[in-house]
Amino acid sequence: MAGPLTGIRVLDLSRILAGPWATQCLADLGAEVIKVERPDVGDDTRTWGPPFFEEGDKPVSAYFMCANRGKKSVAIDFTKPEGQEIIRQLAAKSDILVENFKVGGLAKYGLDYDSLKAVNPALIYCSITGFGQTGPYKDRPGYDALIQALGGLMSITGEPDGMPGGGPQKVGVAVTDIFTGLYSTIGILGALHHREKTGEGQHIDMALMDTQVAVLANQSMNYLVSGQEPKRLGTAHPSIVPYQAFATADGHLVLAVGNDGQFARFCDAAGMPEVAADERFQTNPARVKHRTDLIPLVAAAVAGKTTDEWVTLLEAHNVPGGPINTMARVFDDPQVQARGIALSLKAEDGAVMPSVRNPIHYSGTEITYDKAPPALGADTASVLEDILGISVDQAEANKDG
Question: What's the CATH architecture for 9-214+339-400?
Fold first, then answer.
């Protein structure tokens, strides 16, 4: 069964995470993704380890593996005129190009949008940078942790000042990169639809900073509506109570009480119906107002049972809650296993590489996974021969030199 983007070709000039995440999404949806890498070096993240997956004599980092499934790797040195010409020829026969070089970085090679638009007016060209193509910061480099700080995320992440471990924290995954990759994918799909109607390609300007500010969601709106700076609350929620982690008799549990009915059922499960009847706690706005009164009561109740006892009790009372799982528990979880989220992909040398499936489930164009993250330059000869008619000898000469 073909994926929904079968027949679409993507020329991937990106590296690290945001761009590769976008192009992996496109590959998952069925697009042919040609990842252009520097000969002998490749994407920077190939060496971002340990840990490494030992594939023959060329180990590949787990970091690289997370964002490069389903792609073909071609080794082309486009700092040289012959490499630039190959990129132009591939762009002429591609639908989408994704790059994350600094603003203007590809213009000196004749590989910027205006140059490639001249050879392929239908090309959708997505540029991903730290701060975008315009503005006073456009020439600055941008990395995920920096943008989490500048874009406000770290100001609302972590324990409050004065608490143990207090202070701003970054999120444990490079969420700014990943969100930018996802928004880039959305932008590309929108541009594909526009091209379907008009035949016109276009340039997409994506910035990590723009994305980070955009995904502050309710926290940014809380500020814009109230003028009050959001505070760091650890695992707690600024607008819902109780909605945070609590210590159990043997570990920790997250309660995610989203409405008044759930709170009443929690109090029943906890053996404290009088708390649900207290007017200070009967509605969510009241619970938020009286947070400091309520949380110690909930914490004392939760501490009296083990995590597993609470999981059973909460499920019986239809109250959202659960353990804080380690990675081992995540992949052992029966729901995760039932959804087939862990993958095993066969590498070029026959080794079985682990991966994590795309969360999209189609009813008519289900995603298939038949290509592991590629070895550097593994597809150079076949891509250039099949698409450009360049001989194996010419391809090898370009790759090596």
Answer: 3-Layer(aba) Sandwich (3.40)
